[in-house]
Write a structure and sequence with these properties.
Helix content: 40-55%
CATH class of the largest domain: Alpha Beta
Organism: Streptomyces achmelvichensis
Low-confidence stretches: none
CATH superfamily of the largest domain: HAD superfamily/HAD-like
CATH topology of the largest domain: Rossmann fold
Mean pLDDT: 93
Largest sheet: 7 strands, mixed
Distance between the termini: 8 Å
Number of domains: 2
Protein name: Heavy metal translocating P-type ATPase
Bound molecules: adenosine-5'-diphosphate, magnesium ion
Radius of gyration: 21 Å
Order of helices and strands: HEHEHEHHEEEHHEEHEHEHEHEHEH
Length: 293
């Protein structure tokens, strides 16, 4: 590889909004055959909105929003931001939690106005042996099959409500998937969210393969497993949760709009957070190598 040809490649990359860590990165683009795409913040905008609230019998919606909003206000997760903003918009000022803990991939827990509050996946509630009443379970299934993320709210040992949040698929994602396929790559959608939501998003952008319900610490293992099957894996992600998977992948592509942890772990940064740049990066690298050979 002549240094000059590589410099031309990386200079053109900068114009396209692609930052490459070093010339050695280009070589791996030749072999990648699979591209794993994180859902939230990568394929979707990651800006979620609180759409709907379903309360259990006898539960006051305002109290649900006050307690859930108070806890989520302390978290930076996109789901948490949606709940906190939606709650504040509907009920005004939120109380300050007396205690707060973030549980990665599951939700948040803490004390608000003397209540022990949980906000997160149904799985988080189950860890505390809390079940959703039938009516909330039904609302959850319906919303999930419509592609919405459902967050349960419980306090003092009882499920009180479920909240529907959703974010939009980026308008560039479907074209990006087409371009990645055009380069001979098989796309896979990877998410900590549930399978129904993941399938709805995948269908919207033209992805057939979905790996859902993956805990943050297991994302790198998913990549490792694909590699063990003999695949050469590119991973695109934005979150703290994606950092280990980005490092494990043969080629890690970080969204420039994402977290510092992801950007540090990636080989390549897509500055504008436009997934089409992932395809551009691979095409450009291959082309650059082509001029060298
Ligand atoms: P992704 O893999 O899509 O980027 P995460 O692994 O960060 O998502 O989270 C997986 C799921 O855990 C979310 O879809 C959400 O249901 C739940 N979750 C995580 N953090 C929170 C939170 N602070 N509040 C509510 N739910 C949460
Ligand atoms: Mg993400």
């Amino acid at each position: 590889a002549t240094p000059t040809a590589l410099m031309v490649g990386t200079g053109r990359g900068a114009q396209l909004g692609i930052l490459i860590k070093g010339p050695e990165v280009l070589e791996t683009t030749r072999t990648v055959d699979t591209v794993v795409l994180d859902k939230t913040g990568t394929v979707t905008t990651g800006t979620m909105t609180l759409l709907d609230v379903h309360v259990a019998e006898g539960v006051d919606e305002t109290e649900v929003l006050r307690l859930a909003g108070a806890l989520e206000h302390a978290s930076e997760h996109p789901v948490a931001r949606a709940v906190a903003a939606g709650a504040a918009g509907r009920v005004g000022a939120l109380p300050v939690p007396e205690d707060f803990a973030n549980i990665p991939g599951l939700g948040v827990q803490g004390i608000v106005e003397g209540h022990a509050v949980l906000v997160g996946r149904e799985k988080l509630l189950r860890q505390w042996a809390i079940e959703l009443p039938a009516q909330l379970a039904r609302a959850t299934r319906d919303a999930e099959s419509a592609g919405r993320t459902v967050i349960a709210v419980a306090w003092d040992g009882e499920a009180r409500a479920v909240l529907e949040v959703a974010d939009a698929v980026k308008d560039t994602s479907a074209e990006a998937v087409r371009r990645l396929r055009g380069l001979g790559l098989t796309p896979i959608l990877l998410t900590g969210d549930n399978a129904a939501v993941a399938r709805a998003v995948a269908a919207e952008v033209g992805i057939d393969e979905v790996i859902a319900d993956v805990m943050p610490e297991d994302k790198a293992d998913v990549v490792k497993k694909l590699q063990a099957e003999g695949r050469s894996v590119a991973m695109v992600g934005d979150g703290v949760n994606d950092a280990a998977a980005l490092a494990q992948a043969d080629l890690g592509l970080a969204m420039g709009t994402g977290t510092d942890a992801a950007i540090e772990a990636g080989d390549l940064t897509l500055v504008r957070g436009d997934l089409r740049a992932a395809a551009d990066a691979i095409r450009l690298s291959r082309k650059t190598l082509g001029t060298i050979r």
